[in-house]
Structures are given as structure tokens and as C-alpha cells.
Amino acid sequence: METVLDSISRKNAPFSPQAAKAASPQDKPSAGGNSVPAIDGATLVSILHSQMQRATGCTEVGAAALVAARAAQVLGRVPERLDLTVSPNIFKNGIHVAVPGTPFRGLAPAAAIGVVIGDAAAGLAVMDAVTEETVARAQTLLQEHRVTATFITDDDGLYLRAEAKAGNDTAVAEIAGAHDRFVRVSRNGTVLFSDERPEDGADPADVLKTIPVAQVLDAVDRIPIADLEFLMDAARLNARAAEADLADASPLGRALAARNAEAPSPRAAAQALAGAASEARMGGKPVPVMAITGSGNHGIANFLGVLGLAESLKATREQTIRALAISSLVTTCIKAHTGKLTAFCGCAIAPATGLAAAATCLMGGDARIRDRAMQSVIGTFAGMLCDGAKESCAFKVTAVVGAAIDMAALAVRGAFVPDHNGIVGGSVDETFANLGRLNDPGMRETEKVVLDIISK
Asked: Domain residues for 172?
């Protein structure tokens, strides 16, 4: 029996931003009765650039290595001791995940690697410099208990602090707000660099909380395609991570590729790409990926979900790039509401919702269908728990990429989660705001329980 996606693939439905634009609301009145000004394409491109980072390994262990490297660099010699202190969310995501290119897992080993590298210039790609010698020297530091990692309980944001000591000298480096954003660096009490810790509104993406999603997505069709080419570059980079996983015949990637070979479909193709890339990253393969909104797995689900689907549907390059823009902007909009680190699985919400929006456009749907698909993803997956970064994340990525494409195909056929259904609001904008409340304050206690369970 032919499935919905088989039918769509066979017909090669065209990407239809004009149809989406025609069916979408224009400037919506604000609560005060004034229209909300449209956002221009150049601003959206700038925001997307600000949300994307090339990262090797999980961004939490990457950030741990980065902040430790900066502290050691400022100290000017190998520390006799380095103490890493992080916020609970960083600790949760970094406690069990593999450190790329090493046999290690967790934040303290990542910090030890950073100490040995001692150079923060590469940012979140700091672990590209890992060698066998790096691993051996880091192992010595760990065996001698010279590197520690712990978390503070009074910080719900994104925060890392590395304090390096040698003799009478002490160097401190702090990251906050984003995984690669240094806010303070000092040596022996003298501040060498200071950037006020980011509060609400400091992130360029925060403006998206004030702009209706329909207006954001309307602008995509007006952006010159050359200005969006970097999104295709990001997708190709992440595809190479999937290739690395398949080259090693890792179990999930191998199974997904075999299934797609036996029963090819757009859904299976997208899952095979995204699942394999996430498996490579979570398993500690030293492969770089393009992260979005501070998460490599978000970048994998976002870019590879769209790329796998678009290639299977034989979309043109321009159609694929504009679909990548739609997915990336929806992902960024959601994370502006929820924050970069959440108690629920971010991949199940942000990039999956973005993928559903992009998929409906690739299937020829209009803005109403696009919104229904997004609402369905959130109404289905809002409660999926985040219990830290590790191998199971690749299974979650695989599941939600497939489900997002399903939700889009169902919405095209008229099946969707209705408005005002549980957490789903009367509009996509209302639902995104509800997600923010669900995360904080809604799931703060859940976060504490998860942290207690996985830290034992």
C-alpha cells in the first residue's frame, strides 16, 4: 500500500513559499492594538549566524574543555590543580557523555583535556587538537586527582567556571549564556577580560520572542538565496559525521541504513542521516558538527532531517536551502522562548518542530498546514525527558525526525492536534510561550530529580 510520503515523493510536490505566504497572517495586532513591525531578512540571517557554532563532541564537554583551556592559558603553565564548577544543566548533559577522540567520559576528563591543550582559540572545536599524547597527559592529571568537576545548585542557566592554580598564581575563566561566551577572565585577582553576564534580551535571538512566527517565516522567501548558502554548508558538514558513523559500522547507523536500503522512503532516509550522525557524536567520534542554539544534536536533527527529506523528494537546491532556513528559524524561535538548556528533550521540541514546518513546505503545504504540523509535534513530544547527553540521544533524534515528517504528512492530509489541546495553544506563538513556562518554572523539580538520579 502506498504511504502518504510515497505519494508525495512520487509526485515530487514543489516547495511553495508563495502559497505559504498567501495563507499566512500578516502583521498581527499587538495587545495594545499596534501592528508588530515585520523583521527583515538581513536581521534573520544575522541571528542564524549568531546561533550556529562548529563543535567537536557534545557541546557541554566542549565547553568544559574550552573554559579549562582558557584558564590554563592565562595561568601560563600547567596547573597543579584545576577546579571546574558548572550549572546543574551543564552537569546533567556532561556527566556521562563521551569525550571525543578519547576513552574518557564526563566533565572532569574534558577539563583535563582542555588543560593539556591550553589554547582556547579554537572555541568549541578545541578538541580537534586531541592526540594520543594529549590523552596520556590528561590521564596523568586525572590519576593524580588534579582536576575536579562539580555543580552549583543556585544557577538555572548556562554557566561554567574554571579555576587553575600553580604555586601562588591563580587564573579564573568563566563562561555564561552560551557555551563559548566568555564573560570574565582574571589572573591573581586582576581582571583581564570582562563582559557583563548576559541577561534576558542580550541574545540576538531574543527578539524572535516578540515577532509572530508567521512573519519570521514569511521573510524567508525574500532573503537572497546566496545569503542562505551557509545553511547548506552546515548540512553537508553534519552529513560527514553520519558518513563517519557508517564507515565504522556502528549499530544504530548500520541498522538505519539497512532499513532504508530495504524499504527506501523519505522518512527512513532522513532518520538514517540524523541517527547515524548523532550516534557518532554521542559515541565520542572526533567529528565536527554544526551546532545550532548551543546543541550539536539540535544541529543534526535540524540540518540532516531537512537534507535527508529534501534529497529523497528530489527538491532543488534552492528549495532545500529555503527549507533549511525555515527549520533553523523555527528551532531558534523556540529556544528563544525556552532557553538553551531545558528539562525536556530539546531535540524532540525545537528542531523536530522546525523540521515539521520545513517538511510541509517541501510537500507543497500552505502556512495553515505548516502551523498544524508544528502544533502536532509539540502536542505529542512536549513531555519527553532530557536525562543528559549519551548514546540514547541518538535514538531520540531518530525517533523525533521520523515523527516530525509523519506529522507534516498527516497535516497535509488533514490530521493534526487541535488548538487548545493540552499544552497546545490557540496559535503557534502561544504554544511556544507555553513551552517556556513548561520548562521554567514547570519542570524545575523534575530537573532536580533527574540530576539526583544520574549523578549517583
From this structure: 58-194
